[in-house]
Amino acid sequence: MDRKVTLAHGDGGELAHKLIQQIFVSAFGNQSESRFDATFLSLSSGKIAVTTDSFVVNPLFFPGGDIGKIAVSGTINDLSVAGAVPYCLTVGFIIEEGFPLADLRKVVKSLAVEAEKAGVQVVAGDTKVVEKGGADGLYINTTGIGLQREESTIDPSRIASGDAVLISGPIGDHGIAILAARGELGLMTDLESDCAPLNHMIDAVILGGVDVKMMRDPTRGGVATTLVELAEDFDAIIELEEEKLPIRDQVRGASDLLGFDPLYLANEGKVLFIVSESDRQKTLELLHQFPEGRDAAVIGRVTGKGVGQLLLETPLGSKRRLHRLSGMMLPRIC
Questions:
Q1: Most exposed of 27, 63, 99, 257 (fewest Cβ within 10 Å)?
Q2: Domain boundary at 127, 148, 169, which?
Q3: In this protein, which residues make up the domain named PurM-like C-terminal (predicted)?
Q4: Distance CA 60, CA 178 (A)
Q5: pLDDT of 281 above 60
């Protein structure tokens, strides 16, 4: 096989066949299904959840992950925080002419490894090759299918005054790791992206009997934007305590240097939980059992219902209102 992707790899002929068989089918399996234009799924009764996402992260490879890993993580986490058990994925690749086949193989392998960790299969896919300059190396689109949990208590209409707000770990890691990997501002750090599929950790919380009223993954726009949207959508007043926000020194230092607010930096391996106050400690204990949740913390509480808003209490005791991210902080983050 050639060393780079050519337009002939996308014409449906012999090179396209070899590309699919030697790189995609060999990584994802499903040898028999690959002979057909559709895959049949056997689903149990009940509701299914469907989500779709596209990934255009720059650079394609970064500390802690790559576009393949983040594609799986983002899709699996979207299903999980909605209260679904991830079942399978479809994956579409848009590849620029001249893209190194060795890099494509690495991305596909990474995607397959993360899917296996999450316990889901890649059941269908597609490849398209575009002319040089028609894409920035590689774009990936995914669709995830999940099954509704019978055990899930997720119902944001039940959010009430006194509920606890938790985050599964330090915020802003992904945003700063990506920025450093771009090398545009001379930022030096050993920080890695937090991107990871979190369905097993979320399983433990829900199956542990926690009364979870809402979950969200604070990706683009960060923790602040995610909680503002949640507060406004469900008429909740949420107050965060600035001193309780888990932020690594590297993230805090880089943010101070560049004028960023860590509350608005992207995360790809964190979950926000709103749970009953009586389940606050149990939730922490369950999260702390997982590497992705060992630094989980309670960061705030729901203080009322009415006009939805997010407030931040400073160490001095004053409060200020937080709003959605305005403008473009870090493009091409996922």
A1: 257
A2: 148
A3: 161-309
A4: 10
A5: yes
